[in-house]
Amino acid sequence: MPETISLTVNGNRITVPSGATVAVAMMSASAPCRVSVSGKPRGPLCGMGICFECRAVIDGVPHRRTCQILCEPGMDVCTQ
Amino acid sequence: MTQRYDAVVIGAGIVGAACARECAQAGMRTAIIEQGTIGGGATAAGMGHIVVMDDSPAQLALTRYSQLLWSDLASQLPPSAEYETCGTLWVAADEEEMAEVLRKQELYRSAGVPVEVLDQAQLREAEPNLRPGLAGALLIQSDAVLYPSAAALHLLNQAIEQGADLCAGAHVLHCGNGSLQLSDGTTFAADRIINAAGALAGALTPGLQIRKRKGHLVITDRYPGFVRHQLVELGYLKSAHSVSGDSVAFNVQPRKTGQILIGSSRQYDEESPGIESRILTAMLDRVGQYMPGIAELSAIRSWTGFRAATPDKLPLIGPDERDPTLFLATGHEGLGITTSLATARLLADHFRGAAPAIPLDPYLPSRFAAEAAHA
Q1: How far, in Å, CA of B100 to CA of B232, rounded?
Q2: Which of B51, B140, B226, B328 has its CA 20 to 30 A from that of B203?
Q3: Which residues of chain B are modeled with pLDDT < 50?
Q4: What is the CATH code of the structural domain delimited by A4-78?
Q5: Do B221 and A37 touch (CB under 8 A)?
Q6: How do the domains of chain A map onto residue ranges?
Q7: CATH topology (fold) of B2-45+148-209+312-374
Q8: Does the reported pTM lie above 0.95?
């Protein structure tokens, strides 16, 4: 298993330790996971899949809970 | 001490709030009573589809009249009401239903409702997430959607601005003959009592031709553009509107937030408000038959509620002949959001002695009394 994984967050290539969640990748890229109805940036809150604050678009699929999904090589993650 | 009013409305759902607003605007000293959440009863069980429906000439007249009242009010509604004129597509699955599209087209046109017929290709273009192979649809451009509870709250606030008093948190123990007793000890004296208690109306006024009819709803997360019009299967009148038995129908709605509201189900004789997986599964299977991609979306909430159904699918609007102080504004079943404004206006016109815009007769509660006398 490689020690690091490379993926894109909002089009920018970043590298994270293997085993990192997508939420971690987004935080290290300083990218909000999503933008609320009123235009506020949102990020992980509970970190355990309950609060749904950390939803983002992963490989084109919206509303993925980034705190529950591990980064994979070549993943394309976008702020929702 | 007894408080005196010209009119006391029971129930601050969308119908009761609209009635209180009309009464207050007409200069009547008005009170409105709500035991629970504003718009939390039958109103919360509604999808918020402002729809012209043609099950009977009286239904067409009432829904069209009320749709026009909503259209007039739209610019004054707060953003929270999420009003949007997205139009309705009545979806025809096959050629047989396409024939029904053409019949409905004539009927709507004769009532002055703008309509358009979409063929198979036009329907694909209008709603790419519907499954291929559907025959076409009837588009009613003037239909709209709104958030029922927020709209009820707005109508209530307007009533209060016009001087109406809200009595919240207590329920009515007894009402009739110009007086009401509440569970918190309050008593009211009123020239007119308006029972707008939705599915609970029958508990306050015995003998009403109202049955509770349960419905399930599901709402998804935000997927803007996935659905563009309120989509209803044309078989809806056959399936969901049959007067007996449980039924489900394909009925999805785009919310202004990008969420998709999914219906619909109807059950008689079910008292428990719990979500039933049997009904929910049947409902979602039906939706999946028309819109397979919806299975990939995240649903975030499901709930149920009770609507007030009458035997002829028309509401009860007007005097209860057994009590000169008692008036009814209930029995709207699945059309209460649409017809709330017309209901309130018809009732206010009746109180004022003004000529109504459409005849009140088909909705008078006395139609069932007459039937009973002839039985």
Answers
A1: 14
A2: B51
A3: 375
A4: 3.10.20.740
A5: no
A6: 4-78
A7: FAD/NAD(P)-binding domain (3.50.50)
A8: no
With an 8 Å Cβ cutoff, are A52 and B257 in contact? no
The answer to whether A52 faces chain B, any CB pair under 8 Å, is yes
Answer whether A63 touches B (CB < 8 Å). yes
Chain B residues with CB under 8 Å of A64 CB are none
> Is the CB of residue A37 less than 8 Å away from at least one CB of chain B?
yes
The nearest alpha carbon in chain B to A37 belongs to: B257
pLDDT in tens, B33-75: 999 999 999 999 999 999 999 999 999 999 999 999 999 999 9
Domain boundaries, chain B: 2-45+148-209+312-374, 85-143+211-309
**Rounded-to-integer distance, Cα B339 and Cα B69, Å:** 9
> pLDDT tens across A12-30, in order?
999 999 999 999 999 999 9
Q: Which residues of B touch A52 (CB under 8 A)?
A: 300
pLDDT of residue A47: 94
A69 token code pair: 């999904």
